[in-house]
Design brief:
By secondary structure, the protein is α/β, with parallel strands linked by helices. The protein contains 10 helices and 8 strands. About 6% of the residues have low confidence. Bound molecules: zinc ion (ZN).
């Protein structure tokens, strides 16, 4: 009995320590990265669930209740953050806010206005889709690891070990994408929503956006895009599940090409980027 009591006392503090960190992120690819780093020590929830548009997003009441108990919010510059983070912080003054963009050189938003009733226009000044470059995700992973280690120093060694494995996997992903995209021509690819700027920069490609200032192009702009697609020998028009496809379908029809869906917000980060690179390479052949 005495032995059992001793065991119980021994385990109580461990049980308290084992309570996972509650971390919120903005989009699903960030969730994948934080889960890889945190393992069983974190519970991660993306504010924008898969399939929803981050451009017209607002948290649900149940998410607001969980946000009020969150240990950390890892922001990345999505437009809704500017509208919602002050309200979330007002409801949870203990929440540690981490900026996943720390140490990353941001690109200006490309004709890209993240049109959103809740977000003023100036917040779309920089392109927020930094996770589309595995090299930038390496930097982001270091920032997140430091934040997790600060919040939960008892597991700092675990977080650093997970970081080393993740960086290996990101390097392998980067090598695969580099190989896949090395010699393709044309180097341009046409997308409705310009979410692939950091990906394009990393691999020497150029995205041609169809969406202009968050809207479908006008008839005149559409005609110019069709001319450009012909000139650049584009054969596939890429669309994203969260955005309209009408203009993309019109351009594809005019150039006798096809429409292909790629999703920068997919949670299966590694497989998704490999698939995107393969589709871009196949479209160029
Ligand atoms: Zn976007």
């Amino acid at each position: 009995m005495k032995k059992l009591l001793y065991l119980l006392l021994w385990f109580i503090p461990l049980a308290v320590n084992a309570e996972p960190l509650r971390v919120f992120v903005s989009v699903a690819p960030q969730q994948t990265i934080v889960e890889r780093l945190g393992g069983a020590q974190v519970v991660v929830e993306p504010l924008v669930k898969a399939g929803l548009s981050p451009h017209t997003y607002e948290p649900t009441p149940s998410q607001m209740a969980r946000l009020a108990r969150a240990d950390s919010y890892i922001k990345i510059g999505m437009p809704f953050e500017a509208a919602w983070l002050p309200r979330i912080q007002a409801a949870n003054s203990h929440m540690n806010v981490v900026d996943a963009r720390d140490g990353i050189a941001l690109q200006p938003a490309l004709a890209h206005d993240h049109e959103d009733a809740a977000a003023p226009h100036e917040h779309a000044e920089f392109d927020p889709h930094i996770w589309t470059s595995p090299l930038l995700v390496k930097q982001m992973a270091v920032t997140i690891t430091n934040a997790l280690a600060n919040l939960d120093s008892a597991h700092a060694a675990d977080y650093r070990a997970n970081l080393a494995i993740l960086i290996n996997d990101l390097d392998a992903l980067d090598r695969d994408l580099r190989t896949e995209l090395a010699n393709i021509t044309p180097r341009q690819f046409m997308v409705f929503h310009p979410a692939w700027g950091y990906f394009a920069a990393a691999y020497g490609l150029e995205q041609i956006p169809i969406e202009l200032n968050g809207k479908e192009p006008s008839a005149q702009q559409l005609a110019a895009l069709i001319d450009q697609a012909r000139r650049e020998k584009v054969r596939v028009i890429f669309v994203q599940p969260q955005f309209p496809r009408k203009a993309a379908a019109q351009i594809a029809a005019a150039i006798d090409g096809t429409v292909e869906v790629i999703d920068p917000l997919a949670a299966d980060y590694f497989a998704n980027l490999r698939r995107v690179a393969r589709l871009i390479a196949e479209a160029a052949r």
